[in-house]
Amino acid sequence: MFRIISDSCVDLPDVLAKELDIQILPLKVTIKGKEYSNFLDHREINPKQFYDLLRNKETATTAQANPQECIEIMEEVLKNGEDVLFIVFSSQLSGTYNSCLIAQKELAEKYPDRKIIILDSLSASMGQGLLVVKAAQLKQSGKSINEVADFVENTKKDICHLFTVSDLGHLKRGGRLSNASFILGKLINIKPLLHVSIDGKLKVYGKARGRFKSLNDLISRLEATYDKDRNDQIYISHGDSLQDALYVRDQIIKKIGLTKEDFLINEIGPVIGAHSGVDTIAIFYVGNERTE
Predict the structure, then answer these.
(1) Which of 44, 90, 111, 266 gets the most CB atoms within 10 Å of its CB?
(2) Which residue segments constitute the domains of the chain, with CATH numbers given?
(3) Are 135 and 151 in contact (CB under 8 A)?
(4) What is the pTM of this model?
């Protein structure tokens, strides 16, 4: 018996995480002087509240999970006689992975008969969520912890993350974007096209003039790299910009012949949203080319 754990950067619907028995460690966001835990059920702050605060020019900051928080969520599982498979937000974007490794070392001494596997997803938001969902589905099909861990390691570098943002200031302030890329994005009506690279870093891979050109360029990139044999669903996340997410979905349907049931659309949670900002649109899928 083993339990899959991840952190709230997965940006999955709470009902899906519960259905698949995925345990979630909520990371924290601070805005307007108050700290909130980013639970998937939005019990402390919901995305609409959060993005309204960003629209009112409030600044949000985030904090990685500390080792004690990682110990607590894993020990709860270990005490029940289960092993742990923890799939973590990209180590290139957060220190949560390192906190998990510290916790793993301490818990391994306390529970020598239990298996504790910590995996760096090299992914973010619903790209991380997509990887975790596939792992949980394999677990439900009867695969062992080692088989699921091998799948994650062999698949994570094929999870494509394509997105565009309206304001690069959030990424720049959070240290997620270089100054050169920030200056590029500030050019009049130029919208950056970004992705999470194969080594888990945030990078600009192109630019487009205007919002809908940027959305259509994301769709064209998906067309060129989509692996139809390895996808059950395409995931789309948004920073309180549902209409644009639906536009992207409908255009993909026209381009590659899918149906609405082939998509999962959800809001970007406050922890990721603190860095990506309002009106971000992101697409996630298994592809045949996740570039550097």
Answers:
(1) 90
(2) 2-156 (3.40.50.10170), 158-286 (3.30.1180.10)
(3) yes
(4) 0.93
